[in-house]
Structure formats: C-alpha cells, structure tokens
Structure of ABC transporter ATP-binding protein:
Amino acid sequence: MAKITLDNLAHSYFPNPKSEDDYALKELNHDWQDGAAYALLGASGCGKSTLLNIISGLLRPSQGRILFNDRDVTDAPTAERNIAQVFQFPVVYDTMTVRDNLAFPLRNRGRDEAYVAERVQEISRMIGMDHMLDRKARGLTADAKQKISLGRGMVRKDVNALLFDEPLTVIDPHMKWELRTQLKKLHNDFGHTMIYVTHDQTEALTFADKVVVMYDGRVVQIGTPEELFETPEHTFVGYFIGSPGMNVIPARIDGNKALIADAEITLKRGYAGLEGKVEIGVRPEFARLSQSEGLPVKVRRVEDVGRHKIIRAEFFGHDINIIAGEDDHVSADMNRVTFDAEYVNVYANDWRVAGEAA
C-alpha cells in the first residue's frame, strides 16, 4: 500500500507545448492517502486515463514528479512500482485455465503452491468463477474474461496500489453491481490503495471513499459523494453528478440577493465584487413546484421515472429541472418554484464562491 503524491505534475502529448491548452493533463498537486479508495470521474478525453498511466509507469509525465510513500518513482518502470492494473478490455492467457490465469501473478513471484491454491480459491469465489477453474480461458465470454482479469489484479495482497481503468465496460449490467460490491469488500478487507477510472457516476459514487472529478485535464474537485452533491466546487461537477444535473442559471449578485431578470432569490450568504460569468446553481432536488409561493415558472412536461417525477420547466428563458416525490401531486395550476436557500451555490467563471455570512 502506498500514499501517492502528485507533485507539480502535468503532461502534454506535444513535444514542445506552448500554452496550457497544449496539455492533456494540467498541473496537479495532490496527496492521495495510503489505503484509500479513489475514483477518477469525468467525460471521455478529460485526462483520467492519462493520469492513471502516469501513476502506473506506462507514461512519463512532461513535468513534475510522482512519489509512492515519498519515494520518487517518476522514472521507475512499472515492474518496480509494485502495482496491479486492470484495463478496460480483458487481458488473459487463452491457453491457460482460469485457475492458472489467477495463479500467474503469484507463481511469477515465487509464492508456494499451498498459498497460491488458497488465494486462487478465495478470489475465484469472489468473482463467481470457482466452478470454472479448470476451464480454458479460450472461448469464454468477454465478461467472464474480464472477471478473470479483475481476479488476477486482486490476487496479490502486497501491492502498493490497485489501478482499474474502466474495468466494467464489457461486464453485463446485472453483474456490475455485484462486482463493484466485491471490489469494495476487497478494499475493506485488505486496505489496498485503489484508483478506479470511470465515466459512470454510479460506479464512482458507490465504489470510492473520495471521488476525483476531472474536467478538461484538470482536477476540479476531490470529495465525498455528499460534498460533490451538496457543494459542487465547479459547474461541471454540478452538471456531471446527479441525474438530472444541477440547474445553472445566469444571475446578477447583489449582496445576499441573486437577481434573475426582475426577480430576486434570497441567498444564505453575502457576495461582493463578482466579475465575469456569474451564475447560481441549485440541484433539482432542492427546488419545489408550488401554486402560490416563489417565482413564476412554465412547466413543459412531467416525466414519471418510478422513484420520483422529473419536471422539465422554463424559468426566465432558461431550462430547469425540478424533482418531485412519486406521491407528490403535480397539477397544471402549479406555476411557481421555490429554491432551498441553504443549497443555492454561487459561481463566478464556473468556480464556486464561498461568500460570507449574511
């Protein structure tokens, strides 16, 4: 297990980058704690796989250092970093049995056969393949091969870190929840430092202690699921986390008032001197449709998704979403909306502004 330090780290695929736009991974300075489970979350192309490959040693950064337990491993090859990595598409030895595939990392390090047999049995049960140990990997389905790949990554107890690069992409949907649960159990049992790359917010939020949200090559927030939901530090976090995502509405801010057209929303905190693009952000869960209270809104449609209703509406020319409970009454004469002031965030140029006590 290892604490992983990113020290002034950045990477460009251009030989002579001339501006920040030339960097696929913009400057990072972070400590990731020994034994914690992190998820790297973001859209395709945001830099999360680039960062994972730098951590694993498959890619040398253009700038800065990476340290394991304060030891500089920037130039150390992958083999010296003592990590296990599971890729998006399964990498297995087709001519070997499932048993021999799982045993390979242990035998390669000279572990005795009794220990190998014990770990293989334990991991095969964990991934649901204990009844297939003597089958050759050739001819197995893609999701079965990925389970072997996952098992091979998990079979060693002595690794500094376990790295997962979108490992459940080829897994059948009904198996994904089970495997995420098993990965979480593995983390709880053995305390490995784990880093899990995904574009799926459900995978990230159910797996990780801390979610690292990336946007345009930059880490925009590291936080617990609750922190990402209630106080998104960047508008992208608000948009990307949640279904539907946070409502982001252009506004003028005057002290503890948000002004939208001629309407006012009272804020919990006061703000001064905001420049550039100024917006408020409020999640659909913290908006309420009403007949008599709040500001005017035009309801476009109501979508019943079983657990709740999603109300698609227009608010001073801007599309917003409102979530109502499954049993909540929604009628045509409900044409006003209120926002819970406790959860209205203010953003300047996409970054959250803390404000001062009003």
Observations:
- The first strand starts at residue 4 and ends at 11.
- DSSP finds nine helices and 23 strands in the chain.
